[in-house]
Design a protein that fits this description.
With 356 residues, this protein is of the alpha+beta class. The protein has 14 helices and 7 strands. Strands 1, 2, 3, 4, 5, 6 and 7 form a 7-stranded mixed β-sheet that branches. A hairpin with a 2-residue loop joins β1 and β2. The termini are far apart. Bound molecules: iron/sulfur cluster (SF4).
Length: 356
């Protein structure tokens, strides 16, 4: 063991957070935690982790569940492709792998939704495979240890980082090593203001020695995110509200929403909503007052969701461009999984009705 490894592992032993997925060697639980942690902070993940595993305690229970139930349990965590992939993967593991996750990183990567990072995490933590993890925290830490000037997410930057990760990996206990580097990134080697004074390996850090910790890692400049105007309709008939299900494939696939869609150039919001309702459901509508407008940011774009009251002038809603549709009581809304922007609308509806 090098002095550098000894320092970091000693620090990890003393300072790591007692997170529930660190107290198990059940690959299923570690898999769920790794997938949830991919794009979400630990504090947000914790209640979801417990809820998900009490609803689906085994791979078999997840494989046998309806996708709608999986999405409902995931509701609010975002990046729903993760939940759809978990469900799909559980079915494949049940049918092709006797209900057991494969034991090495290469085979794990054949499972939908398990990429290089998740495969390395599971294989190293559960099976001790010397596979270095390269999540965002680890990349930042390694780039600083080596004072790498390459853009972290460029192909050559990633190649360098893979080489560096192999060089530092503690092969006698790669699982603990990977977690220690991740924990250093999460608690000490922070993206903007690294806490170098509290860092156990500052003596081995080139960025610290050269006083360039704020310049590293180098990130690729991104174009500003486009901002779309999106419309949605609140259509109520006989005390029931119309909701529609998005097609399974694509963004937010399989989630429920208030019907509508994206504004095209040259359209007013009302024209957009009428067109969307005609195309998606085959109905002609009268658009009423705007109920609310909600801003929401996705990874690659932002939207403002304009929600209007609307009524049907002619036609019966049919599933033309939607996967399903339902007329439901307001009290039934919690049974369905909605994207976050629509959940803000539901919150406003519930608050407004509560005041009446
Ligand atoms: S010395 Fe600072 S920049 Fe270097 S690894 Fe430690 S916290 Fe990160």
């Amino acid at each position: 063991m090098t002095h550098h490894q000894k320092k970091l592992l000693g620090w990890y032993n003393e300072h790591h957070r007692n997170l529930p997925w660190r107290q198990t060697d059940d690959p299923y639980r570690i898999w769920i935690s790794e997938v949830m942690l991919q794009q979400t902070q630990v504090e947000t993940v914790l209640p979801y982790y417990h809820r998900f595993l009490s609803t689906f305690p085994t791979i078999t229970s997840l494989a046998e569940a309806d996708l709608s139930q999986v999405l409902k349990t995931w509701e609010g965590l975002g990046y729903y492709a993760r939940a759809r992939n978990l469900h799909k993967a559980a079915k494949i593991i049940e049918s092709d792998h006797d209900g057991e996750l494969p034991h090495n990183a290469a085979s794990l990567r054949q499972i939908p939704g398990i990429g290089e990072y998740t495969a390395a995490a599971i294989a190293s933590i559960v099976h001790g495979e010397p596979a270095p993890v390269l999540d965002g925290n680890v990349r930042r830490v390694l780039a600083r240890w080596m004072a790498l000037r390459e853009e972290m997410d460029s192909p050559s930057g990633l190649k360098d980082l893979r080489r560096v990760a192999q060089k530092y990996l503690y092969r006698s206990d790669p699982g603990t090593w990977n977690q220690a580097v991740m924990e250093l990134g999460a608690l000490v080697c922070l993206p903007r203001n690294p806490r170098c004074d509290a860092c156990p390996v500052a003596n081995y850090c080139a960025a610290y020695k050269k006083e360039v910790t704020t310049e590293i890692p180098v990130r690729r400049k991104r174009n500003p995110r486009p901002h779309y105007q999106v419309t949605a309709a609140l259509i109520v008939e006989g005390g029931k509200l119309l909701i529609t299900k998005r097609p399974e494939k694509g963004l937010l696939g399989g989630l429920w929403e208030f019907p509508g869609g994206k504004q095209e150039p040259g359209e007013t919001l009302e024209e957009c909503l009428k067109r969307e309702l005609r195309e998606e459901l085959g109905i002609e509508t009268e658009i009423g007052e705007e109920f609310c407008a909600v801003d929401h940011a996705y990874t690659h774009f932002r939207i403002t969701l304009h929600v209007f009251h609307a009524s049907i002038k002619s036609g019966q809603p049919k599933e033309i461009q939607v996967a399903d549709l339902r007329w439901i009581e307001l009290g039934e809304l919690p049974q369905y999984a909605f994207p976050r922007a629509d959940r803000h609308v539901i919150q406003k509806l519930v608050t407004m009705l509560g005041r009446k």
